[in-house]
Design goal:
The protein has nine helices and twelve strands. It has 475 residues and is an alpha+beta fold. It has three domains: 2-164, 2-Layer Sandwich (Beta-Lactamase), CATH 3.30.450.20; 225-312, Helix Hairpins (Orthogonal Bundle), CATH 1.10.287; 320-465, 2-Layer Sandwich (Heat Shock Protein 90). The strands form three sheets. Strands 2-1-5-4-3 form a five-stranded antiparallel sheet. The protein starts with a helix and ends in a 10-residue tail after the last strand.
Length: 475
C-alpha cells in the first residue's frame, strides 16, 4: 500500500512538472514559430509586390508623356494583366478611387487606405482583412506626370497560400512536440521506475529493521546516491544488530550479576531467620556475606545510574583543583588488601609532586577504581602483578596501568570500550565499566588508550591536561 502511494505520488508529480514545462515550451515555440514564419512570408510577399509596383510605375512614367495616353496604357495593362491568377491589379484615379480591376469585379473598398497613402508618399501597403473577411496583402504605388499623381496601381494577393504554409510549419512543429512529449513520457517512466524500484526495496528493508530484523540487507548494486543510501542502511542494520546482540548479552549478564548477590542475601537471610541454624559464628559469617553482597549490589546499581546519566547527558561534574598523586594513592590503598589475598602485587610509582589538574575528584577516582579493579580481576591468582606509573609529559599528566593477566584478544580489543561489550571472558561484570571510564575521561578533556596481548597482559594509559593558570568555568 505504501509503495503504491509512493509510486503514484512520484509519477504524478513528475508528469505534472515535466509535462507542464515541456508543453508550455512547445506552445511558446509553436506561437513564436508561426508568428516568425507568417512574418517572413508576409515580408517577402510585400517586398515582391513593392518591387513589381516600382518597376511598373517606372515604366509608365518613362514611356508615357501625356495623362490621356498614360491612363489608356494603364487600362490596357490592367485588363490584360498576365499574373491575374496570382495577383489582382487595380487602378485608382488621382483622388484614390479605384476605377478598374484585373478581375473585372468591383473593388471591396472604393478608397483603400494604402492607395490614399501612396498618393501622399508614393508607396502604401496594407495587411489585414478586406470587407469580405478575406486576409490580403496590398501594395499601392503612384504614377506621376510632371510631379503630379496621374493614377495609382494597386497590387493585391490573398494570404491563403501564406496561411497554408504557416499551417504546415505549425503542424510540423506540433509533430515534433508530440514526439518530444512521448519521448519525455517513456524516458521519464523508465527514470521514475529506476528510482521507485530501489526505493520500494529500501522501504521494505527499513520496515523489517523497524521490526527488529537486523539480518536483512539491501542488494548493493546501485552506483549512485541510492546506492550510497542502501550502503548506509546496510551499515546501520549491521550496527543495530551488533548493538542489539550486545544489549541482549548485557541484559542477560546484568540479570545474572544482580541475581547472584540477591540470591546470597536472600539465602543467608532465610538461614539466619531459622532459630535452629542460628549461632554466633553463623550470624557473623552471614552478616559479612550480606554486607559484602549488598555493597556489590549497590556498586552495580550506581554504575548503571552513572551510565544512564552519561547516555542522557545529565552527569554533572564538580570541578576543582586536584592532586592526582593523592587521589591515586588513596585508590591503590583501597585495593591493597584485596590484591594481597589474591597473591597479586600492586605497585605504584609516582614522583613526590606533580602539576595539578582540573577535575571532579569523585569521578576521577571512579576511573581509577574501575581500571585497577579490572586489572586485579583479570590477573592470574598466583604471581599476578599490577604496576601503576604516574608521570608528566609536556602539558599532560599521564597514568599507565599495566598487568600481566589474561589480556584481550586482537578481535575484541577494538570493541572493549563499547557499551555492553564483555568479550569472551566469563568474569563477573556489567560490560559498561570501560564505556563509563571513556566518557568521564572525555568530559575532563583527557585521553584513554588501551593495548593488550592475549595471555600476556593489558596496558591502559590515561592522560589529563595540566590545569592552566586561569581556571575554566565550572561545569
Amino acid at each position: 500500500m505504501g509503495f503504491k502511494i509512493l509510486k503514484s505520488g512520484i509519477t504524478r508529480r513528475w508528469i505534472i512538472n515535466i509535462f507542464t514545462i515541456v508543453f508550455v515550451t512547445i506552445c511558446v515555440l509553436l506561437v513564436a514559430g508561426s508568428v516568425a514564419v507568417r512574418g517572413y512570408y508576409v515580408s517577402s510577399a510585400k517586398q515582391a509586390l513593392t518591387s513589381k509596383s516600382e518597376i511598373d510605375a517606372a515604366y509608365f512614367e518613362e514611356f508615357y508623356s501625356t495623362e490621356e495616353n498614360l491612363l489608356a496604357g494603364v487600362r490596357e495593362y490592367v485588363e490584360s494583366f498576365p499574373q491575374r491568377e496570382k495577383i489582382e491589379l487595380m487602378a485608382a484615379n488621382s483622388v484614390g478611387r479605384v476605377t478598374l480591376t484585373s478581375s473585372g469585379f468591383a473593388p471591396d473598398d472604393a478608397n483603400p487606405a494604402d492607395v490614399i497613402e501612396a498618393i501622399s508618399s508614393d508607396v502604401g501597403s496594407f495587411v489585414g482583412s478586406n470587407s469580405y473577411g478575406e486576409n490580403i496583402i496590398a501594395v499601392s504605388h503612384s504614377i506621376k506626370l510632371g510631379g503630379n499623381v496621374a493614377c495609382v496601381l494597386r497590387y493585391v494577393i490573398s494570404m491563403r497560400n501564406i496561411q497554408g504554409r504557416v499551417l504546415s510549419v505549425v503542424l510540423l512543429l506540433s509533430g515534433f512536440g508530440i514526439l518530444l512529449l512521448l519521448a519525455c513520457y517513456f524516458s521519464g517512466r523508465y527514470f521514475v521506475k529506476s528510482i521507485i524500484k530501489p526505493l520500494a526495496t529500501i522501504t521494505d528493508t527499513t520496515k523489517k529493521i523497524a521490526k527488529n530484523d537486523f539480518s536483512v540487507r539491501i542488494d548493493d548494486k546501485y552506483r549512485d546516491e541510492i546506492g550510497d543510501l542502501a550502503h548506509e542502511i546496510n551499515n546501520m542494520a549491521a550496527a543495530l544488530g551488533a548493538s542489539e546482540a550486545m544489549k541482549n548479552d548485557f541484559t542477560s549478564s546484568i540479570s545474572h550479576e544482580l541475581l547472584t548477590p540477591l540470591t546470597a542475601i536472600r539465602g543467608w537471610s532465610e538461614t539466619l531467620s531459622d532459630p535452629n541454624m542460628r549461632s554466633d559464628d553463623m550470624i557473623e559469617k552471614g552478616m559479612k556475606v550480606i554486607s559484602a553482597e549488598s555493597n556489590r549490589l549497590s556498586a552495580m546499581v550506581s554504575e548503571l545510574l552513572d551510565f544512564s546519566r552519561l547516555q542522557n547527558g545529565k552527569m554533572t561534574l564538580n570541578m576543582t583543583k586536584l592532586d592526582l598523586i593523592a587521589e591515586l594513592e588513596e585508590t591503590v590503598l583501597m585495593f591493597e588488601e584485596r590484591a594481597k589475598k589474591s597473591n597479586i602485587s600492586l605497585l605504584l610509582t609516582a614522583p613526590e609532586t606533580c602539576s595539578p589538574v582540573f577535575g571532579d575528584a569523585a569521578r576521577i577516582k571512579q576511573v581509577f577504581v574501575n581500571i585497577i579493579d579490572n586489572a586485579i580481576k583479570y590477573s592470574y591468582p598466583e604471581g599476578g602483578k599490577v604496576e601503576i606509573n604516574l608521570f608528566e609529559k609536556k602539558d599532560r599528566v599521564c597514568i599507565v596501568f599495566a598487568d600481566n593477566g589474561i589480556g584481550i584478544s586482537e578481535e575484541d580489543l577494538p570493541k572493549i570500550k563499547q557499551k555492553f561489550f564483555k568479550g569472551a571472558s566469563s568474569r563477573p561484570g556489567s560490560g559498561i565499566g570501560l564505556a563509563i571510564v571513556t566518557d568521564i575521561v572525555n568530559l575532563h578533556g583527557g585521553e584513554f588508550e588501551i593495548d593488550s596481548v592475549l595471555e600476556k597482559g593489558t596496558t591502559v594509559m590515561i592522560t589529563f591536561p595540566i590545569m592552566q593558570t586561569a581556571l575554566p568555568e565550572d561545569r
